[in-house]
Design a protein that fits this description.
The complex is a heterotrimer. Chain A is α+β, with helices and mostly antiparallel strands. Chain A contains 7 helices and 4 strands; from the N terminus they run H-H-H-H-E-H-H-E-E-E-H. Chain A starts with a helix and ends with a helix. Chain B is an alpha/beta fold. In chain B, the strands form 8 sheets. A 7-stranded mixed sheet of chain B has the order 15-14-25-24-23-16-17. In chain B, strands 28-32-29-31-30-33 form a 6-stranded mixed beta barrel. Chain B has a 5-stranded mixed sheet with strand order 2-1-5-3-4, with helices on one face. By secondary structure, chain C is α/β, with parallel strands linked by helices. Helix content of chain C is about 40%, strand content about 10%. Chain C has 17 helices and 11 strands. In chain C, helix 16 crosses helix 17. Chain C is globular and about 75 Å long. Chains in contact: A-B, A-C, B-C. Chains B and C meet through helix 2 of B and helix 13, helix 14 and helix 15 of C. The structure holds flavin mononucleotide, iron/sulfur cluster and FE2/S2 (inorganic) cluster.
Amino acid sequence: MSALYDQIRTVASEYPESRSAVLPALRLAQAEHGGWLPPEAFREVAEALELTPAYCHAVASFYDMFHLEPVGKHMVEVCTNVSCALVGAQQVVEAFERELGVEAGGTTVDGEVTLRTVECYGGCGWGTVVSVDHRYREPVRPEDVPAIVRELRHAD
Amino acid sequence: MSVELVTVTIDDREIQAPKGQGMVETAASAGIEIPVFCYEPRLGAPVGACRMCLCEVEGMPKLQAACTLTAQDGMVLKTAQTSKQAAEGQDAVLEFILLNHPLDCPDCDKGGECPLQDLTFRYGPGKTRMQFPKRTFDKPIPISPLIALDRERCILCYRCTRFSENVAEDGQLVAVNRGAQSIIATFEDEPYRAPFSGNVLELCPVGALTSTTYRFRARPWEIQNVPTVCGMCPSGCNVWATTREGKVARILSRNHPEVHEGWTCDKGRFTYDHLRAPDRITAPLVRVRRRGFEESSYDAALDAAEAGLREAGSSVVVAFSGGETVEQAKALTRIVREACGSEMALLPEEWDPGLEAFRSPLSAIRDAEVCLVLGDQPVLERSPIVDLWLRSARRAGAEVIQVNPAGDVQAAPGSAAQVAASLREGDVPTELKATGKRLRSAKRIALIWSDDDPSGGRHVGALANDLHENGKADVSVYVLPRTPNGRGVPAAWYEAGEGRSEPPEEGEIGALIVSGDEAAYDPRVAELAGRARFVLTTAMFQSDLTAWSHVVVPGTSYLERDGTMVNLEGRKQRLRRAVIPAGLDELEFLSRLGERFGLDIAAWAAPTAEELADLPPGDEFAWSSPDPQAPTGKAAGPGLDLVRVRSLFSGAGVERIPQLQFQRPAPEIELAFDDAESRGIAPGETVRVLSNGTSRDLRARLNRKLRVGVARVADEHAAGFEDRVQVEKIGA
Amino acid sequence: MPIRELLLQGADERDLTKREEYEAAGGYKSLRKALGMERQAVLDELLAANVRGRGGAGFPMGRKASFLPKPEDTPKPIYLVVNADESEPGTFKDREIMLRVPHLFIEGVITAAYTIGSGTAFIYVRGEYLTEFEVLKAALEEAREAGYVGKDVLGSGFDLTIVVHRGAGAYICGEETGLLESLEGKRGQPRTKPPFPAISGLYASPTLINNVETLATVPKILEMGGAKYAALGVENSAGTRVFSLSGNVARGGNYELELGTTLRELIYDLGGGIPDGRELKAIIPGGSSVPVLNATEVDTPLDFDSMAQAGSMLGSGAVIVIDDRCCMVQLGLRVAQFYMHESCGKCTPCREGTRWMVQLLRKIEDGEATQGELDVLLDVCDRILGNCLCPLGDAAAMPVASYVAKFREEYQRHIDEGACPFGGESSLEGVLAPVDQHHAHLRGQIEVPTHA
Ligand SMILES: Cc1cc2nc3c(=O)[nH]c(=O)nc-3n(C[C@H](O)[C@H](O)[C@H](O)COP(=O)(O)O)c2cc1C
Ligand code: SF4
Ligand code: FES
């Protein structure tokens, strides 16, 4: 059986009830499928946890960290909640939009970077908080953006 | 066990209620309405989602969702009638609900029978303060050929998704996204393909889920609802047949808490339109030498029938279909026994009267500690309602043990009788040890037999008797017949006399009476017809067999009959004619035929009678049957052991409903995971299935729970296969 | 200096993420002490300490723990669930604790589990906290190796499994019953109460749910004794809290203070005041869910009762400082957008009401609202308040209603002048909220509330 299947079964064994492993399982599947969850992924998770694909999709669609459409190789997330917004988050968003040439919520045409705004990421004291490939950069100011984008472009 | 009564005060009225009873019911018991949308006790614990039921409760600062409250002594509750705060709360909730609701009542099917419409009228705001564009969606979208979804009308009460998740447990209909973006959906726009899908139509409190077979067909004030019983399977769900202009327009469930809790399967709900199938036989047909069939008068048909039977003497065989009412079966029995002096009958199934000793309502399944299911046929396909009861039993904490090739204990096909015997005799194989122990320790047991049983249920009956005698347990037994009245028809036959003989193995027979389409499809009957000098057939539709017949009289559907049906619990229930059949009523035809032989057979079922008495308590009967001989298992051979599954969605009726075709079994073969792997077969791959010269290509479905060495195929895709099949990867 | 480090004590001097360092600083002594005591005796210390929950609701910890059945009185397993979903806007204290004193936190978890007789504890960490998750895992591994976690903890005969579970991005999973649903592998929609988790929580078993900071205080309480801990802080607000300071303030960050310290001390003495010579305009004292205070209320002490008197709440201890560049309508809009985005969609008033609030607030901000619509806004808040299944709805209505109440004339000007008086100069001008951004994954189903 597939590696993903076995991985999911292993995670599931940590919990009294295997359904508790849905989030970890979806996370594994998302990694397996290049950062998003195609229909196939739900079938795989459903099979491993003896659930239905519909159920797994219902769960995934509730959580912001699961993507139901393709995303870029890299993920840039800018917090625009109150604390960050008060110290200029919007200027940071716009700096990224300029540097990447894509609107927040979208992915660069070359499929390299997805840019999106997010709700409070819990770095409010050091705003603006930007999460680059799930690692926080804090604080980020508009003038820091070009370097970050360059770094991403030259990564891998 | 007696329930403690408590006193609660609702709208300043003191009400006695059982402690812990829901407050919505408690209020209703005193004629006080607490408006609800999401609340529906049959869906499990209340969720308190819609907030329509907000009420003021003494001692609590905030309004409370009354649907989540239960009667506690001294509780003081005020509804909108007596509490300004509650009235405002409910008004607020309705304003929020209507905020994005299209209010397209005039062209909505629900109009006139819509809870949202009614409650808005009674509790809602007169006008809307919403000046923004309402949420819009593509509409209506079919979520299956049977059901259309209008997301704009949906108020997200989650009744439908809770049904799917908590009752049918099919996990097909779900809510996706979050907050204001939440919508009801199926996976990837795949159809909601599940045997109970139609129930969500009745659960939806607005016009969001509507039936494609009823949409725009009728208005509430043009219809009549006839209370009757579903005749599609032996469960005996109580239903309303909604008729409009003398035609059946839809089937709704009529809640009988002991039988089906108001759920019905899609076969029972959606098959009614076969009454109006174009190929329906509407007038008697008589075969005329060299000219084939000719439509004839009933008198001419009766003449021909009488002549054929008299000529046959006592060499007369009757083949029942199992769908007859008790009255029809009795009439036929008398004609064959008394008029023709024959005892030759093909019964749909045998039935051991001793089983009466273990008779209980279906709802007793839910209350059992252990439910043991024996037999190769999936319960769902034989009696969908029993499948639902088993699920609620498991949710209520019962241990449900399925012993079959794909069960919790993966028994060999055809081994049910041995399993029963070994559990009875106590010398069980290792895989059954745990089951045996559990049965011995349990005090409330439900035994379910889901397969044909020539012994009429004696294997499971004997086990029940043993558990009752030696285990001192309350045991209820449910033998699932193959046919809707499979318990009533044999009873009718034997009531008229002990005897029954099989037709001769070979040689000519005088006459064959074929009663109904099910019998007409039976290969044994076809074989007999070939040897019969005269064949009298009653059928709704043409078939190979009607072609063999000499006289064909139009058959009727349960929706066109009055009479008595006995469901699998042994409950006698009343069929009420919803619509008039095109031809003569079957019972009346039999009465006239009997008359020709000097028999006095009532042309009408007794209006209501002792035969509709309630279930007698089981202990009025004693298990008297001798212990049955368990047949020895089938000899192993090459290839895979084939289990043919007779699927729920099959039969003459279903075949004639276009919208039901997607529910019929796909051309698949179910394979054990290891068997597929060892043959290099991937899920969904098309494989070649061979059996004594028959070869058919079927899609492989892999089942991790299926016993290795076993394959399952639906009857309609297994024609020509023998007990063992070879499965090959194509191009291997 | 009002700084009073208890939980974060020593974290500046040494690397307390390392077990040896933590032990050298006296770590895991409290656990040994607890394991030597009767369960009830430990519980009594917690009751004596009178420590109130740090997650937001402020419910006394000892009392909550005492609602659970004793292990011997229930056939079901007892669970300890740690709420590390920290998502309340402005709050980032649990993160600091997990990053800098993970062993203290773990020691608290083990001790609490022992106290209630729980053999399995789940730590639900918000999914975005990846580094925090890794640090915690590493520390947990060290604790396992040292025999603090696992079978027969320190030879006491007490077995404990700790599972660290990652969320996946949903604020509502911070609400305790939503968290339980999520942990059971469902959509994180809150449950109706009763039954309360103490009776029927995770897998319908008795469950104690506490916040990270709450549990991190446990070792300290046992170390100094409940009574002494209770002496810290002020009446009804015992001990210290890690306050998260953010917004228009020179030195944002976490500051552990005794309860009862004033906002002024935090914002000016420690936070260095308002930068760029701006004026203090408003303060959100307990995370974005709580009613706002205006500049004149800056001397309000940070404790439960004082905040209540001021008409607000201590909430999660997140202090957001707002200067005079901020348009309070834009603030209301941005806060409402957050709660609309996070509403789970289960109950009607929150699902529909938060969306309606956003529509109304945007119309007001755009200067296109009528007088009547300002009243409708207040009425919508009023109709959400107290009518929802869980407190999220209130969390949206309360603050917005308070903005209108305290800055009415500013709202009024938007209507009278037909435009935002800040003329595009507000610090929140045009900020792009996730609800407004095109969500590819919603397949075009998402529609942004507008007032076309
Ligand atoms: C909408 C909402 C969000 C919440 N978010 C959190 C959270 O992120 N972290 C937390 O510890 N408590 C949160 N809470 C409070 C929890 O419901 C619960 O009261 C708390 O975790 C109990 O722990 P404590 O008693 O130690 O504070 C939230 C409550 C609500 C209503
Ligand atoms: S208040 Fe909001 S978050 Fe809470 S249950 Fe209702 S919809 Fe869900
Ligand atoms: S009926 Fe009570 S909340 Fe829906």
